[in-house]
Write a structure and sequence with these properties.
Layout (H helix, E strand, L loop, with lengths): L7 H5 L1 H18 L13 H5 L5 H6 L8 E5 L5 H8 L3 E6 L2 H13 L5 E4 L12 E7 L7 H11 E12 L4 H14 L12 H10 L4 E5 L4 H5 L6 H14 L1 H4 L4 E7 L3
Parallel strand pairs: 1-2, 1-4, 2-3, 4-5
Antiparallel strand pairs: 5-7, 6-7
Helix pairs in contact: 2-6
Length: about 260
């Protein structure tokens, strides 16, 4: 089994990883009250796919999952892992938080599926080269040291394999302000070290992932969410899709992006 060896630079980053683990373990512990019985872990595909406007579009980019080896990178609560298992994938759920991994395992069992859960950091993946056909990540890259994580992602992805990520982006002061305000309204706290992807970050990622493509999601769609007028979500999300397709610059106004990476053969 060939894996990357840690460098001195990686160990200097270890304090950040410990802070991330502690933060997300606390989050997972705070969710325990909602799971008093196995029934609380049950969910439908639609509940996950529709919880944000970009999720279903991103999942569809993975293609047919039957028989595919899928890494859910930064699996969090594990809903994506279970969704992929339902579609016939062999799923490995990886997270730095053991608390979230426990929730993922319990959710998989409650829904009648099996996933392989593993505690590790994305900057030093404990897998052989070319281990996965597909990699999925929802709001994970902006927590990572991408100098390390990007090379690890490519290393464990098989030739012609694909990685799809959904990430918060701040390509302008306006989108940064919208993101911060929405997080404040939702009562969410950012970790000390996370930072939404900037335009410069995206350009740097293009050096690591030459085949990287991306698309923006949710600019006008932020309005009903800010005002808590959910009945308008679909209308504004549809408007966003039209503008993003027809005006590339509009993508740079959006607060989220889907990133797609194809590893060369």
């Amino acid at each position: 089994m060939e894996t990357n060896k840690p460098s001195d630079h990686f160990f200097s980053d270890y304090d950040r990883i410990k802070r991330e683990r502690a933060f997300h373990d606390d989050q997972a512990h705070g969710r325990l009250h909602a799971f008093s019985s196995p029934e609380n872990y049950l969910f439908t595909d639609e509940q996950y796919l529709a919880h944000e406007s970009w999720v279903q579009t991103a999942v569809l980019k993975l293609g047919n999952l039957k028989g595919q080896r899928v890494l859910d990178l930064g699996c969090g609560h594990g809903m994506a892992s279970v969704l992929f298992a339902r579609q016939g994938a062999f799923v490995t759920s990886l997270d730095v938080s053991t608390g979230y991994l426990a929730e993922t395992k319990n959710r998989a069992i409650a829904n009648g599926f099996q996933v392989n859960v593993l505690a590790a950091c994305a900057e030093l993946l404990p897998f052989a080269n070319n281990s996965f056909d597909l990699i999925w990540g929802n709001a994970i890259l902006h927590h990572l040291n991408l100098d390390f994580a990007s090379s690890e992602i490519l290393r464990v992805l098989r030739p012609n394999g694909k990685a799809v990520f959904c990430e918060p982006v701040s390509f302008s002061f306006l989108t940064r302000s919208i993101r911060d305000f929405m997080a404040l309204r939702a009562g969410n706290k950012h970790t000390r070290d996370e930072e939404s992807l900037t335009w410069e970050t995206l350009l740097n990622l293009k050096h690591s992932f030459p085949n990287l493509t991306w698309e923006g999601h949710q600019f006008l769609g932020s309005i009903p969410r800010l005002l808590k007028l959910s009945f308008l979500n679909r209308f504004f999300d549809s408007a966003d899709q039209i503008f993003c397709r027809n005006f590339f610059v509009y993508n740079r106004l959006c607060r989220y992006a889907i990133l797609e990476v194809q590893k060369p053969s």
